[in-house]
Design a protein that fits this description.
The protein has five helices and 17 strands. By secondary structure, it is mainly beta. The strands form three sheets. It has a twelve-stranded antiparallel beta barrel with strand order 1-2-3-4-5-6-7-9-10-13-14-17. A two-stranded antiparallel ribbon has the order 11-12. The protein has a two-stranded antiparallel ribbon with strand order 15-16. Strand 2 and strand 3 form a beta hairpin. The longest helix is centred in the first third of the chain and has 11 residues. The chain is globular, with a radius of gyration of 21 Å.
Length: 281
Amino acid sequence: MRAVLLLVLLGSTLAFSQPRPARDTADVGPRGSWSVGVFNPLRIAVHDRVEFQTHPLLFLVAPQVDARFALVRSPLRLTAEAGLSVPTFALRLTKGYLFPSWATSQNDIGWMLIPRAGLSLSGDVLAHDVWTLKADAAFRVALGPNSATPLNSFLTPLDLALAAPLTGFRSRVGGAYDHAFNDRLRLRGELNLYVTGSQGNLIVSGQDVGPIATVSPLVLTAHLGVDIAVFQHSRITAGVLWANADQGATRVIEGSDGFSERVRVRSNDFLPTLDFIWAGF
């Protein structure tokens, strides 16, 4: 925390000619530009219309690369995205943690490919504000026997990250608005609707209650965060993520007739987000 405060103080002493550009839009950076965060992916523009991205921390155990191609540049920007990942090795390393019952069983995550494709559309508002619409989908291509099952971890962002390899499918439609207050501070709001593959049925006391109580594959998330400019091109990002999902929770409700019944309710997760993103040209 002291390091973060120090970066903010140092950044506050610098004068910037304009705000940092909006993040996660349809824009592809100029050739040679790059950015990377502790949690945000490494992005490298190899051409004014082509950008590659990957997560350095995960690449050795879960190789993954996305390519972004700028189809339309101005005033609206339309970008196509295509990617491929191989998550098997990383999932097998977590057998005793994410899948505790598999630590001593014969169940295993099979080898698989996860292709991904999507589109992003962005436009400008005022001088430095940007709106963005996104749609993408990822699905599982099994390369052999596979015992993968939905995680149902009760931590929705983790379930979403593993939805494609464990349920076979994940799609998203969403939008974001990025507002520049001044040359140092941006505010970004984002709303997304996800649809995953089958999440299975509700488990009660270790028993599958059957299709009468299936877990909904619909997930709604929202994120609100601020970007604080530090140094010439870098920034600190901090915010709150809200996720609404069916985690099998129930609640007892008393009706007007005085009788009570147990009904299914959706769960809400609130998680803080924090990152430092380096950038260069």
